[in-house]
Design brief:
Layout: H1 3-18, H2 25-32, H3 36-42, H4 46-71, H5 76-86, H6 92-98, H7 105-118, H8 120-146, H9 156-176, H10 182-197
């Protein structure tokens, strides 16, 4: 494993388990097994490391998820359902990269929120990702209207915004109350939304 990749993976695990603020540079160095000079060869600061971790793992994962949803060989209904089904699985990105099943979705998203709160560059990236998700969902809805399975009367962008908001709302609800079954919430959101937008059968 390349040293930079090792640093990123180790940092991701430490940040998720302890939070960015509670991880010191010494924690990083001792867990990675390099010197301070070795660390600064790759990163100018812990802040730069956090930015690279979130950009390299979190945002790239969300990009891939939406690309998969968009390119899925199915109907618009199936694609919207796939989007909602992907939400409870977002924490799998950390498990995939780190091969660690102890990492949960809530810790993963709390790290993301911490980074966005602290650094404008991450806020800008997050806005960009959100816009891409909205554009993808809007495109799916437009296709559904063309195929006659989504009602012509609905506003495509507003519906995409509604779908996206329901997905993000489910995440926020679960982050503040981990006892909630996020899989149930996202499935219920999908069913309610689909009933409100599907084309009437005459």
């Amino acid at each position: 494993m390349e040293t930079k990749t090792k640093i990123l993976k180790t940092a991701l695990k430490l940040f998720i388990n302890k939070g960015f603020t509670d991880v010191s540079l010494n924690d990083l160095i001792s867990n990675i097994g390099i010197t301070k000079g070795g660390f600064y060869h790759y990163f100018n600061s812990k802040e730069e490391l956090l930015t690279d971790v979130i950009k390299g793992y979190v945002f790239s994962y969300l990009d891939k998820v939406m690309a998969y949803v968009d390119q899925y060989n199915g109907t618009s209904k199936e694609k919207i359902h796939l989007y909602f089904n992907s939400i409870p699985k977002h924490g799998d990105v950390a498990k995939h990269f780190l091969d660690d099943n102890s990492i949960d979705l809530r810790s993963f998203y709390l790290l993301l929120m911490e980074g966005i709160k602290k650094y404008k560059i991450l806020t800008d990236y997050f806005i960009d990702i959100n816009n891409k998700i909205l554009n993808t969902l809007e495109s799916i809805i437009v296709d559904g209207k063309k195929d006659g399975i989504i009602a012509q009367s609905i506003n495509s962008y507003n519906t995409a915004l509604h779908i996206f908001s329901c997905g993000q709302g489910a995440l926020l609800l679960w982050m503040t109350n981990p006892e909630i079954d996020i899989g149930y919430v996202t499935e219920n959101n999908f069913q309610c939304i689909w009933r409100s937008i599907e084309a009437s059968i005459i």
